[in-house]
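Subgroup meeting minutes
Present: P.N., E.W., G.H.
Scribe: E.W.

1. P.N. recapped why we're keeping a running log of single-chain structure predictions: easier to compare across weeks, and new members can see raw inputs and outputs side by side.
2. G.H. added today's entry (565 aa).
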Amino acid sequence: MIVAAILLLTSAMVRSAGWQRGFELMPWPDGLEYAAAGRNLAIGRGAVLHFGGYTYPSRYTGGYPLILEFFYRMNGTDFPALYATMILGMLSVFGVFMLTRGLFGRLAATIAALILALSPVFITYSTLAMSDVPTLFVTICAAVMLVLATSDYTAQLPGWERMAAWLMFGLFAGFSTIIRPTNAAILAGLALCVAMVPRDLSSLLKAAIAVAVGFAIPVAWQLHQNSINLGSAFASGYSWWVPEVYGAGGKTFSIAYLFGPTMPRNPHGNVIVYLTTLLGIDGMLGDRGDARYFLYPFAAAAFAIIGFIAIFRTPNRTAARRLLSFGLGYLAALTGLYCFYLFTDVAFILPAAFVLFIAAGAGAAQANRWMREVLRNKTLSARQIAAAAAVIVLDVLLVVSLASEVAARLSVQPALANSVMVSTLEDMDSTLPRDATVVSNISLQFLELYLPAGSRRFVGLNSLDPGEKFTDYHLHRLYEKRAAGWNGPVPVVVFEGDQMSAAVADSLASAIDAKKAVFLLIAAPESQQYADVLKTQLDQLQGKFVVKPGGADEALAVYRLTARK
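Output recorded in log:
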């Protein structure tokens, strides 16, 4: 009943965040690439992007697309990617509850699961086609395998069964790494776990071999994919798409980012952001009129510190010490790594933050048990009274913080329906001829996902990317690569510069002469400057073709191109 209630609350919180950005695969290009790579895996192309008739490598490793492939194969390729993330988010809450329940009791498990379910960054990313919440789930699975492999129950089993648990830990750890390579920091957590609670050398050696074998399986798959799609096992999709940032001359990691400005819009540096986040006071850096936390509240951070201290000072809690040592080492290594990174995002450390939720639950339960025992005594010292009062204050702060988060989210009525753009494209998919040619300023990869049927041909209206919601990041990057000397294939566009391409215009005219439908889809511009560009291009198209309006809404205008007599 407790689990059911918490999962219902989790579902309500996730719904409160709204689904529009998830359906639109925002933020781009991240969500767009994940969904495209997952779908291409499901149809046999591999973890790649495919648009405009050509195939390109993805910026991202294939871990999360493999998860999406599983859901696509189970439910069809039109299954929304955000649903996969939501399901894994619910399973993460369940996993934290059960993991904490087995080591620290029901009260600790309830508090830990509630803090996770009401974490703003967890709620937000549970509605997006992003890898952060799935990585959290995979990390929790690895933690479960660690607890199982080191439990007293497993110690009584035959050796091969113990090694199977270590093998599965390595497999989950390796899979977490191919979701996001920085998650190799999970091995630092394993090393701290071994150092804090050592075992005999023979057992360690066998466990190390099993972990290495399990870890190598997904990593070897990723290296093979890199060789196929990038030409080298150790090449990076980031370097392929954005060489000026992630290439040899880029400064992706630098000591300057510890306290210097980073992207996006972080003037404080990484150390300040992540430190205040871990202490639950990160709201102080944002809007003073809305000083809400991003990961968990200050009271939860205080209880987490109490939990760590209480467990590490109890020698007979071996299993709990192993788990917290593993999580703490992983969190420290991952956070330390991201302190040197060009970009700042609290979601980067979410996969390792599971240990904070568990420690907060354990600390809160331990502190309240101690407080009840102390208050039963008739004679209390001033120190005991102060400590008990501090626990009561932390309890009140935690309840108020979590209740405020619930109230704030439930007071907002988000648009739960599909986005206008996605709804329009899905409606068009059933009526658009299967052999139609579609010219658009919308991302060609996005159109490939939502208008996939038949042998439709997609042509870019232009290669501009003014940074608006649906404009084509990938097409723009390809034309920039070509301008820099790259000679790979690039999808054609009607306007590569200011003038219309005669060859592309002739190919559209040939399609019309062949009795094939040619449509123009224009995403509504968000700036006057881009609107002026589109108007100029539309005027030039009208000089070559008859452009007939075919309907419009707030997101999209549809035109039919026919021959001008």
